Amino acid sequence: MKKMKKVTAAVSALALAISLNTVYPAVTHAAIPSSPANSTIFGPNVYVFDPSMSKPDIESVTSAVYGNQERNEFGDERYALLFKPGAYDVNMNVGFNTSVAGLGQNPDDVTITGALNVDAKWDNGNATRNFWRSIENVKIAPADPNATVRYAVSQAAPMRRVHVVSKDMHLFDFTASWDAGWASGGYLADSKIDANIIPASQQQWFSRNSEWNSWSNGVWNMVFVGDKNAPSGEFPDPPYTVIDKTPVVKEKPYLYVDNQGHYQVFVPSLETNTQGVSWANGQTPGQSISIDDFYIAKPDSATSAAINAALEDGKNLFFTPGIYHLSDTIHVTNPNTVVYGIGLPTLIPDNGQDVIVIDDVDGVNVSGLVIEAGEQTSSTLLKVGEPGSAADHSANPIFLGGLAFIRISGMRRLSWRTRLKHRLIRASNCII
To answer: Measured between alpha carbons, how far is 129 from 151 in angstroms, rounded to an integer?
Structure first.
C-alpha cells in the first residue's frame, strides 16, 4: 500500500501540470437538438456526422448527449456517435452507454483535432464506476502539442482501433484536491498510442496488439499480450504479465463508409502469432459485407420472431442502440453469420429463456452487444453448441468479441434465484 501511494503521488505531481492542458467540453442537460446527423437508416439513437457540419452544430449534439449520459449509470438510453472520414475540431466527452466511432476504413481516416476524453469529474475523480462506453476506429490528435488525452475507465469500456497522438494519455482522473482518483480495469486493443501512457492509480489493465511511447507504472495487475514496447518486469513486482505475441486472434468487426458512400461492415480475418496493430501496413486483412446483407434491428420494432426470420433467410444481424425485450431465443444456425451491435444495444430475455443460442457451425461472429438477465430466471444467457459438439472450427473459429457486457445484475429488478451460467460454450475453437 505504501508503494502504491508513493507511485500515485509521484505520478500525480508529474501529471498535474500536463492535466491542465486537457480540454473538457461544457456539460449541459438540455434536450438533444434536432440534427441532420440523426436521419440515417440506423434509427433515432445514432448520429452520423460529416466534415461539412459546423463545430457548433456537432458539439450541440455531443454535449447534449453527454449531459444526459455523464451520470446516467442505470438508464435505458443508448447512443452511437459516428464520424464520416475527415477532420473534426470538436471537443467531446463520452458518457455512459455511448459509443464513439469513426466510419473510415482505417483509424487515421477520421481525426479529432479538438478533444475526445473520458473523465470522472461526475464522481470526484473516481473512475471505478466508469463502465459501459467505447471509442473505436478513430484518430485523436489534439492541435495543442502539450494536450493530454484521458481515458479514465474501468470495465466494459474498450478502446479499439484508435490512434492517439499527444504528449500523454492518462488512464485515470484527478480528484478535486488533485490526487489521482481510483480506476480499476480497462481494455486497449489494436491501437497505436503515440504518447506516454500514465496509468497512475489505474489498478489493472489489459492491452493487446497495441503500442505506445512509454508505459509509466502499474498498481495491481497489468497484462500485455502481443504489444510492442511492453514494459519490462515480471509479476508481482512490478505487476506486469507480458506475452510477446498473440497466439490466435480475430479483431472485432467495425462499420465504415466506402468510397461510394455505402455502409459496409468489415470483418477482420483470423490471424496467428501477431504483435502490434492489424493496420500497421495498411488495411486490416478481412472482408467487407454490405449493410444490405444485414437485418437492421431497432428497439421500437424488432421482435424475436422478426429477428429469427431474418436469420432463417440468411441475413446477418445489425443491432442499433436501445433496449430489446425478447420473448424468445435468438437462434443462429448458419455458418459465418455476423451478429453486430453499435451503441451498446441491450438484449433482455422476458421469459427466462436463453438470449442467444449458436449452433455448432463455423465462423459465427458476435460482437458489440450487452446481454443482460431479465426478471425471470435464465439458466444461460449465451450458449454455443450442444452436448456432444465435436466439430473442428480451428480454420474458421467462432468469435465472441465485445461481450464484456454479459451481466446478471445492476439495472433491472432480478429474481433472487441463482443464475449459474452467463455463457455456456460447448463448441471447440471459440475466440472470446
So the answer is: 13
Using the structure block, give the residue that is written with the C-alpha cell 496488439: 209
Q: Helix or strand or coil: residue 137?
A: strand
- Do 290 and 264 form a contact (C-beta atoms < 8 A)? yes
Burial of 29 (0-12, 13-18, 19+ CB in 10 A): exposed
* Max Cα–Cα distance, the chain, nearest Å: 61
Instruction: Compute the distance between CA of residue 53 and CA of residue 215 in angstroms, rounded to an integer.
Output: 37
> In a 10 Å sphere around its CB, with 0-12 CB exposed, 13-18 middle and 19+ buried, how is residue 176 labelled?
exposed
Q: Where are the domains of the chain?
A: 2-244, 288-431
CA separation, residue 413 to residues 75, 79, 352 (Å) = 13, 23, 13
**Among 372, 357, 369, which Cα is nearest to 407's?**
372
Interval 248-291: pLDDT, tens: 999 999 999 999 999 999 999 999 999 999 999 999 999 999 99
pLDDT digits (tens, 9 = 90+) for 108-164: 999 999 999 999 999 999 999 999 999 999 999 999 989 999 999 999 999 999 999
SS3 384: strand
User: What average pLDDT does this structure show over 41-49?
Assistant: 97
403 phi, psi to nearest 5 deg? -105, 40
C-alpha cell belonging to residue 286: 478481412
How far out from the chain centre does Cα 347 lie?
17
Q: What is the DSSP letter of 180?
A: B
Instruction: Answer whether 127's CB lies under 8 Å from 154's CB.
Output: yes
pLDDT in tens, 204-263: 999 999 999 999 999 999 999 999 999 999 999 999 999 999 999 999 999 999 999 999
